[in-house]
Amino acid sequence: MDRPEPLATDLLPAPAAGLSPQALLESLLFVASGPVSAARLATALELSPAAVSDLLQSLAADYSGRGLRLQWSDGLVQLTTAAEAGATIERFLGLEVTTRLSQAALEVLAIVAYLQPATRPQIDQLRGVNSDAALRSLLSKGLVQEVGRLEKPGRPILYGTTPDFLQAFGLNSIDEMPRLDEEE
């Protein structure tokens, strides 16, 4: 009789310090200063990357409907608060609601998010106006970042969104953005 192959989580070592591997993973995500790779988590936990991936999926399912979420960006994962809790968290922390984006900044952010990587000349052409101020504002807020340079004369800067963008809009990945209707 053939035995089924064990799941990666079946091959986990004995719990360290009385905590399950999932609890240890959660602890690492909590103390991480930013997004971290599954490989780095696997090394710290002395597990295989496949086992860590299984644990991350289980943890994400556990957080469904709760106040925490796992957010993935470019192969990195981070523990964040649920976007739905944003207003309550802002009120608790006494944060001013002065972080609203102007219409111009929202337009530039949408263009960067959908085209990324995008250059300022591409953004200006789509908007029909100069976008320097809006782009600077988004850079200072950490919603967009320089991701490289285009290999053509002048080597214009390429811009893309950041993990902060995903968190601000309650997205786990850029793939969760609404699809654009090509006719619009």
Structure commentary:
By secondary structure, this protein is α+β, with helices and mostly antiparallel strands. The chain has 2 domains: 8-85, Orthogonal Bundle (Arc Repressor Mutant, subunit A); 103-176, Winged helix-like DNA-binding domain superfamily/Winged helix DNA-binding domain (Arc Repressor Mutant, subunit A, Orthogonal Bundle). 42% of the residues lie in helices and 15% in strands. The chain has helices at residues 21-31, 38-45, 49-63, 86-93, 103-115, 120-127, 132-140, 163-168, and strands at residues 36-37, 68-73, 76-81, 118-119, 144-149, 157-161. A hairpin with a 7-residue loop joins strand 5 (144-149) and strand 6 (157-161). The longest helix is centred in the first third of the chain and has 15 residues, at 49-63. The radius of gyration is 20 Å and the shape is globular.
**Strand portion:** 5-15%
How many alpha or pi helices?
8
Low confidence ranges: none
| CATH architecture descriptor of the largest domain | Orthogonal Bundle
Query: Radius of gyration from the CA trace?
Result: 20 Å
Q: Helices, strands, pairings?
A:
Elements: H1 21-31, E1 36-37, H2 38-45, H3 49-63, E2 68-73, E3 76-81, H4 86-93, H5 103-115, E4 118-119, H6 120-127, H7 132-140, E5 144-149, E6 157-161, H8 163-168
Short description:
The chain is of the alpha+beta class and 184 residues long.
Keywords, separated by commas or semicolons:
184 residues, alpha+beta, Arc Repressor Mutant, subunit A, three-stranded antiparallel beta sheet, 8 helices, 6 strands
